[in-house]
Amino acid sequence: MSCSRRDFLKNTFKTTLASALPLSAFRMLSPAEVKAYTGDSSIRWVFLVDTKKCVGCGLCVKACKLENEVPYDPPVTRTWVERYVLMKNGQAHIDSAFGGRDGFTESKIGENEIPTDQIAKGFFVPKLCNQCMKPACVQVCPVGATYQTLDGVVLVDRKWCIGCGYCIMACPYGMRFFHPVYKVAEKCTFCYHRITKGLKTACVQACPFGARRIGNLKDPNDPVTKVIMDERVAVLKDEYGTKPQVYYIGLDTNVR
Amino acid sequence: MKNHILRPLYVVIAGVALLLIVRHFMVPADFGVEEGGNFTYNYHRLSSTDDWKNFKVKYRGRNYCQECHEENLESILDSPHESIECENCHGPTIDHPDNPEALAIDTSRALCLRCHTYLPYPTSQRAALPGIDPQSHNPGENCVDCHNPHNPDLENM
Fold first, then answer.
1. Is there a domain that residue A180 lies in?
2. Which end of chain B is less enclosed by CB atoms within 10 A, N or C?
3. Is the same domain home to B71 and B135?
4. Closest residue of B to A36, CA-based?
5. Is this complex's ipTM strictly greater than 0.90?
6. Cβ-based contacts of B48 with chain A (< 8 Å)
7. What single-letter DSSP state applies at residue B143?
8. What range does the domain containing B145 cover?
């Protein structure tokens, strides 16, 4: 059998090419397998706050503190409720005593008596970690102690955190604080231990008025996702580009 | 090569080797293994996620209370207080009835006033709730002496 130089090279090239293609290259992958491979989660936790429903009872703050073992009396909290009273002359009275932990039981704000007939608007705004899509706090951590999980929650590794406080400075929302007991950075975890077990967060469960809701943005049938997609919602400090994932109904320009 | 070049070079090599050895023992095996991160961003210890998942649940919800206290739950479900969770007043369940054996019920006036202090805010639901002026409405008294929290309607008082 004769074999020209040209044929020999051609056949060698073909054989090499054929053997380089493993059988698995022809296997059809299900979308679920692709998702698992690319590390894509089918969950993206988001939060929806309806400021029109909040009455400022502060039961969410109390429940959060007890559930998450946040020291009860020191001035630290993972979530809080702010009161906004806007007067007819344009003046704004804003307060959040003890983060709203004990509710709002006085019409006086600070030292100011508020004349009822001068009030234009009065409302309450609950605040919590925005679990940003592009979290500035994760960006600045020098030791890899704070990170975003695949389902979108930003957590702090208490064993790894050195307590430098960069992330506390970086958060545009002032959500982070220094934990007085563990001496590490502390923040709202969306009650990660609860939502991963199918429970609601402690604050959502404690709210008697449905002002706080948690949902999965990747599930189009989730009632929270439907509100975010179909209705008029806003986020806080959009201009910082961190893509916050706590959506608000009934936000006012005085709320920042 | 000359000795005066080699000697510092050995020191540098030894330093780098020491760094790598220390790093090998100091950095946990599950550090930076999750997708979606690199050396400069989101680099973390994977088992930290499990640490958070294993955190203790303390507020168990009314479905847990219902297992033993069904009649109490039914009574509040028939009242205007139906949307209030048991644990908001009775305290977190944790491992009740083992730990704590009995829950400390908050019967304070302050608890009721969280919602029932009248605040005249036109754009909030707060003004729509039945509210009192705490200075004039039986100051110092405990609300529960007259009102039943599981059935707060005045007609059934």
1. yes
2. N
3. yes
4. B35
5. no
6. 147, 155, 157-160
7. G
8. 62-156
Residue pair A208/A61 in contact by the 8 Å Cβ criterion: no
Q: Look at residue A166 and give its three-state secondary structure.
A: helix
Reported as a single tens digit per residue, the pLDDT across A141-191 is 999 999 999 999 999 999 999 999 999 999 999 999 999 999 999 999 999
Q: Does A43 touch chain B (CB under 8 A)?
A: no
Residues B89 and B142 in one domain: yes
Q: Are residues B101 and B41 in the same domain?
A: no
DSSP secondary structure, A113-160, as one string: ---GGGEEEEEEEEE-----SS-HHHHH-SSS-EEE-TTS-EEE-TTT
Q: What pTM was estimated for this model as a whole? A: 0.85
Please give the residue range of the domain that contains residue A177: 136-186
In a domain, A141, yes or no: yes
**Phi/psi at A238 (nearest 5 deg)?**
-60, -30
The CATH number linked to A153 is 3.30.70.20
* Residue A53 forms part of a structural domain: no
Residues 6+ apart with CB under 8 A from A150: A39, A40, A41, B34, B35, B36
Residues A228 and A46 sit within 8 Å (Cβ to Cβ): yes
State the nearest Cα–Cα gap between A38 and chain B, in angstroms: 7
Number of structural domains found in chain B: 2
Rounded to 10 degrees, the C-alpha dihedral A57/B94/A245/A42 comes to -150
